[in-house]
Amino acid sequence: MNKRRISGLITATVGGLMLFAFFTAPDAISDTIPDKVWFCYILVSVWFVIFGFAIFFFAPSGELNEELNEKKELERYYGKKAYITYTLIAGNIILFILSNSVCAGLADTWSLSKDVMKAGRWYTLFTYMFVHANALHLLFNMFVLGVCGYKFENIAGRAKLIILYLASGLIGGIIGVLFTDDGLIGSSGAVYGIIGAMLVISVMNRDKMKYYLNELIVIIAAGIIESLIFMPMSAAVHLFGFLTGVSIIAVSRKDEYKL
After folding, report:
1. I want to staple 110 with a disulfide (CB 3.0 to 4.6 A). Which of 24, 127, 214, 217 is the partner?
2. How far, in Å, are 170, 216, 252 from residue 60 at the CA level?
């Protein structure tokens, strides 16, 4: 990652953290600050985010041509149909629609918590990763699954994607319940496992995946901000799902993932 991209990422991250601080500020503090000051603060925060991502993504023409050449070169590695990725995305979306219409309460029934595990409902260790709390939660996870799952499935194969998805969600969920008494739902643990796996693969092939590694770092930065917003409940699920993905690739034969 060059200096331009690093500076853009730092700028956008600072803006995101500023917005996070605004939305989580205690009432005792926010009530003492004039509305005009808050308005200017939000304006600056949003400007930091937009300007930072503009610096990161809008590359000079020479750099952009290099990036396009890299993507064309890698099409032979992940230019196939990713049926498992598409199926997982479709399944999550369909279940979200059902849980908010004809199957109201499905998310609660399939959620994972200490109480349901003590009650013997062990199947929730898997079902929790297929239901979501809200549309924003679903869209972020499905976007990342589409970007990272598609490439992992093409590089590693369909069976390994299924194993990685379930294993990361399982480990993330088991450890996640230790940090909260509330129910856990969402595919975040599974998705972060795929992010972790693709990070290792990208580093292993950084000579060919330099620009994709840049995109992955942005996704990880956005994930960290999301984890901060929803912590401590989901932060543990994110972290240990991510570490599961990293570990699975780290202990595998390296030549399997060398492009």
Report:
1. 127
2. 43, 20, 38
